Structures are given as structure tokens and as C-alpha cells.
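Appendix B, Record 12. Input sequence as logged:
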Amino acid sequence: MKKIIALLMLSGCGFTPMFSGNDTDIYVDKISGINGIELRNALNAKFGGARTPDATYKLVVKLDEPTKTYKGLDTTGTATWQAIKLHAHYDLFAADKIIASGNETAAESYTFISYLVAANASYNNAVQNAVSVLADKISTRAIAETQRYTQSDK
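Logged structural output:
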């Protein structure tokens, strides 16, 4: 009953959910590197699939190489935890006009162990998690900006 009342109260306020089925016609330009390919695929998935270059909006992302830092040491001074940080700069275009621009960073910690295969798997998993976080941040901002731009006078 409480859910119905809350729904009725919101129905007249003009609130429209950002992900309400509106078409996000955003073309994601190619992003260099292996992590760039993964980020582009994740962004396309957030936008409902890949678009052609003649889409209403174009998103250009520059992804920096990941940086690693040591987070934890054992009693011998050997690193046991590391953190991976990814930084991306993006510009969102409507025709040739930049309607949004920004920087996003995502960081993920992972276990660094002496077994090479396990250490690589742990690192790769951390990078994938960071790419997913970047895709969430960038796509949310891009969708919000396209909604704002659509509703403005342009």
C-alpha cells in the first residue's frame, strides 16, 4: 500500500527517470589499447548497443595507461597488495559542439602474490573492475548531459 501511495505522489511531480527507455543515440569513438577496447564495449552496452558514427551524440574518451601503487607489505618488505588506477578524460559532442567534458578515475586493489599466473589473474580482474566503474561513471554523466541538452534550447 505504501508503494502505491509513493508512486501516486511521484506521478504528478514531473520526475522522469534517467533510464526510462529513452534512446541514447551516442556513438563511442575508438579508444586505444586493450583496456580502451574493453571500456568502449562496456560503454556501448550501457548505451544499448553500438551506434554508427552519424549518431546524434559522439563520445570521445582518452584512457591513460594504468598506474600501480603498493598498498601493503609483509614482514620481509615484500609487496602483498597493490592498487591499480585508471584515469579517463572524455568529451561529449552534439554535432561539432562539446556539450560535456570531464575526467573520471577508478581504482581497485588486488592481491599481489609470488605465483605469476595468479598474480596476473588478480591484476587483470582488478583492471576489469576499474574499467567497469569507469564505464558506469562516464555513461551516467553522458546520459544525463544528453537529457539536459535535449531539454535545453540548444
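The longest helix spans residues 116-151.
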